[in-house]
Amino acid sequence: MEKSTSSQTEHYDVVIIGAGLAGLSLARQLTLQCGNEKSILILEKRAQIPPPQQKVGESLVQVGGYYFSKVLDLEEHLMRNHFMKYNLRFYWKTAGRDNRCFEDYSQCYIRNFSNIATYQLDRNVIEGELHRLNVDEPHITYCAPIRDLHVDLSNHDPHTLSFTLENEKRMVKADWVVDTSGRARVLAKQMDLLKEVSIRHGSSFVWVDGLVNIEELTEFSLKERRLKKDRRILGHAPIWLATNQFLGEGFWFWVIPLQGRTSLGIVYDSALFPREKVDTAEKLIAWVCEEFPLFARDLPKRRILCASSIKNFSHDCQQTMSPSRWAMSGESGRFNDPLYSPGSDFIAFHNTLICDAILTENKKELAGKIHLFELLVQSVYSSLLPTFNVSYNALGRQESFALKYTWELSAYFTFFVFPFINDLITDRRFIIAYLSRFSRLGPINLSVQNYLSAYYEWKKGQPVTTEPIFHDFASAEPLRRAEGTFYKTGTDVQEAKKVLDMQIDSLIELARFIVAHINADVVGDSRALTNRLFVETIDLNKLSFDVEEIRARYGMYSASTASYEWSFDSCVLDKLRTSAMTGAEYTMAEQGKIGG
């Protein structure tokens, strides 16, 4: 126990259960927003903060990056002690090559650094810094290590918490109780709020000493690598700064740089990937060296520093905040999948809403806020479920994944990042407008995800490229438009509505384009992508991937010369359609001259 709790200080404004990233961040955020006006007690079961065991979950994306750097004012610490992240980059093996060299792999990426800085967090280091900052605050008290915690929640009176500290039974009162206990899920279990999800994804991961620089896993000399013409497309920024992900059907393997060590791990869909292949550190290293042979040049020589695994990542919760003055943040409430590094984003969203609720004194106003806040976080969580539950198989092919990620990232920039950087997510007027607009994308997203999954299954047996393909996601104009919202700071509610409306139109056009791109591949005629009569038959709310139906429908309009006018370059993804037939080939196929 780092500060004593005496009988005179047994009542606290806020008790936070758990001193992990979510709880430490919440205490910091409350302090920055209201100074020392709120007394805070942090209860932690571990004796050491941070723990000696290395913690997973290092990669930030824009919401989390903005939250830690700008909202929590940790920018200098992040720049000094953690690597700035060079976006997410994705890799696929190339057919007909031994894939022992970095140059053998096809890549998708965003070449330019984000205007909103993101970072590769050493979780132990940042939790140590947050702990240092918090422990110096006179209004924050730590009790650790505790055991036998019991929480007695009240609808009206202060809540009561009892626990054992140094073999002494203690009891405190609290106006607010916030559970940030992670997978211990203290409140959700106590109140029977646990909710199952159908996603069954697991993970195994290790940390090894030193930097695993994938660009050096090659037979080319340093000079040859510097002067390769690929640099015209890839640029000169250190690729190892990215979260580098190597993809296959139903799984991905990450490479994340930390100071003095590298985080490596696989996440897999248990229905598509056998856990026993990677359920130990040794098996994981052996598997990745076989599956992606470039790693055989490096990993067998590395010293393993730490290792762990999680059998099931995903879980849900019936409710994560209440006007009875309790809430959950981090993994104590909901978590879906780490594919796009959303964990810190959810911490940012929940902590910001919880801080606003704690600072709301009027009970009627609090009840109204909590109702909308809960709808907001449920909506954000649910919107991501099809991404992980429906089309995880589509990770196995560059083309299907590029379509998937362009769509998902455009939606993320618009509906996650833009509202957060403008402090709009606690404004009830905005939340109502947000939910009405966001809900329009729900049915379209589910349809698109199912379409992508079926497209992958149809195409996975077809020939693939024998030369690496490099694709910048930002070459798609709808994604650039969405990224442009990063510059729209200081936006009020009325202007924000207009921004969202414009972006929804762009997203709907992008969804139609994805379906049209797939249809053009199915019929084997690139002209289908701009055939106005054919494109206009696409109903985004009633998508069904039926090859014969698509070909029959195109047959009705294939002779039309009327052109569909996209607002962007419709050829932007052509290089990814590696097995598509030309228009002449399609005509020959229809005549039975070549196989279809």
Would you give an account of this structure?
The chain has 596 residues and is α/β, with parallel strands linked by helices. The protein has three domains: 7-75 and 122-194 and 316-363, FAD/NAD(P)-binding domain (3-Layer(bba) Sandwich); 83-120 and 200-310, D-Amino Acid Oxidase, Chain A, domain 2 (2-Layer Sandwich), CATH 3.30.9.100; 445-590, no CATH class. Helices cover 39% and strands 18% of the residues. It has 17 helices and 20 strands. It has helices spanning 21-34, 62-71, 75-81, 123-135, 186-190, 222-227, 231-234, 281-291, 343-358, 363-389, 398-421, 428-459, 477-483, 493-523, 532-535, 547-557, 583-590; strands at residues 11-17, 40-43, 83-84, 88-92, 106-109, 119-120, 140-143, 146-152, 159-165, 168-179, 194-195, 201-209, 243-248, 251-258, 261-269, 304-310, 316-317, 321-322, 326-328, 470-472. The strands form four sheets. Strands 1, 2, 7, 8, 9, 10, 18 and 19 form an eight-stranded mixed β-sheet that branches. It has an eight-stranded mixed β-sheet with strand order 16-12-15-14-13-4-5-20, with helices on one face. Strand 8 (146-152) and strand 9 form a beta hairpin. The longest helix is centred in the C-terminal third of the chain and has 32 residues, at 428-459. It starts with 10 loop residues before the first strand and ends in a 6-residue tail after the last helix. The model is unreliable at 1-9 and 580-596 (pLDDT under 50).
